[in-house]
Amino acid sequence: MEGMEQWKVQVENWTNQLNQLLGQLLEQVHQVPPAQLYVAIAVLVFTVVVLLSIPLFKRKKSNTIVLTGLSGGGKTVLFYQLRDGSYHQGTVTSMEPNEGTFILRSETTKKGKIKPVHLVDVPGHSRLRPKLEEFLPQAAGLVFVVDALDFLPNCRAVSEYLYDVLTNAYVVKKKIPVLILCNKTEKVTAHTKDFIRKQMEKEIDKLRQSRSVVSAADITNDFTLGVPGAAFTFSQCQNRVTVAEASGLTGDISQVEEFIREHVKP
C-alpha cells in the first residue's frame, strides 16, 4: 500500500509539472502577435505537407536498357542471348524493335528477388533510327553495338551514329550511361576494343569540328562534345561512356550483363 501511495504522489507531481509547462507555453503563444503566429502555423503546415509528399514524387528507377547500333552488328543475337540463350547462326535482321521484360538468362538459377530487365533492340537501319527517340526517355542505360569484325569499312558511319547518340538531348541531360560493345570478338580478325575506341575518338573529333555550326533544325537536340582546343576522348562526355567486348554467337556476353546489372539493380 505504501508503494502505491508513493506512485500516486509521483504521478500527481508529473501532472502538475506538465500543466505548468502547458500554461507557460500558452502564455508565450498569447504574447506572439497574431500575424506572426499565423505565419508560423502556415510554415509548419507547409513543411509537413512537403515531407509527406516527397515519397509520392520520387520517380521510379527505370529498368529499361536499349540496344542500338548499325545494322549487322549483332544486336538481335545479343537480345536473344540475354533473354534465353538462343543460338543464331548468321545475321538476324530486325525491322521492328524487339522488346521484352525478363530476368537475364544467366540469373534464372539465382535465388532471391531479382529485378526483371526491360530490353529493347532498336533496328539499326537509317530510316528506322528515329524509333530510338521513343525509348531514350525511359532508358537506364544504352548499349551501342559495334561490329568488331567489319569495323574499319564502317568506321565513319558508326562514328556518325554514335555522335548523334552522344549529342542527343535525352542522353546528355539525363546522363544516360553508354556502353560501346564491340561484338563478334570470337573471330581472329576482329579488332580489339582499344583499337576501336581510339579510331572512333579520332573520327568523332573530326565530326565535332565539321558540325561546330549547328543548323536551326537541330539546335534543340544537339550538344557540343568534348573540350575546345583538345583532342576528343570519351572521358570528356557528360555521361559515362565505357567500352567492352562480347560475342553474341558464342554466348560470351558477361560484360554486357555486368553493365545491365550496374544500372538495373536486382
UniProtKB/TrEMBL annotation:
Family per record: Belongs to the SRP receptor beta subunit family.
| An example Gene Ontology molecular-function term | GTP binding
The species this protein belongs to is: Punica granatum
Q: Which coarse location class applies to the principal site listed for this UniProt protein?
A: endoplasmic reticulum
Q: Which residues cross the membrane?
A: 35-57
Which UniProt keyword terms apply here? Endoplasmic reticulum, GTP-binding, Membrane, Nucleotide-binding, Receptor, Transmembrane, Transmembrane helix
Compartment(s): Endoplasmic reticulum membrane
**Source superkingdom:** Eukaryota
Indicate yes or no for the key word GTP-binding: yes
Entries under PANTHER family matching the protein = SIGNAL RECOGNITION PARTICLE RECEPTOR SUBUNIT BETA, TRANSFERRIN
Q: Which SUPFAM superfamilies match?
A: P-loop containing nucleoside triphosphate hydrolases (SSF52540)
What protein name is recorded for this chain? Signal recognition particle receptor subunit beta
**What InterPro entries does the record tag this protein with?**
P-loop_NTPase, SRP_receptor_beta_su
Q: Which CDD domains match?
A: SR_beta
How does this chain sit within the bilayer? Answer: Single-pass membrane protein
Note the PROSITE patterns from the entry.
Answer: ARF
List, alphabetically, the GO terms of the cellular component aspect.
signal recognition particle receptor complex
A biological process (GO) of this protein is: protein targeting to ER
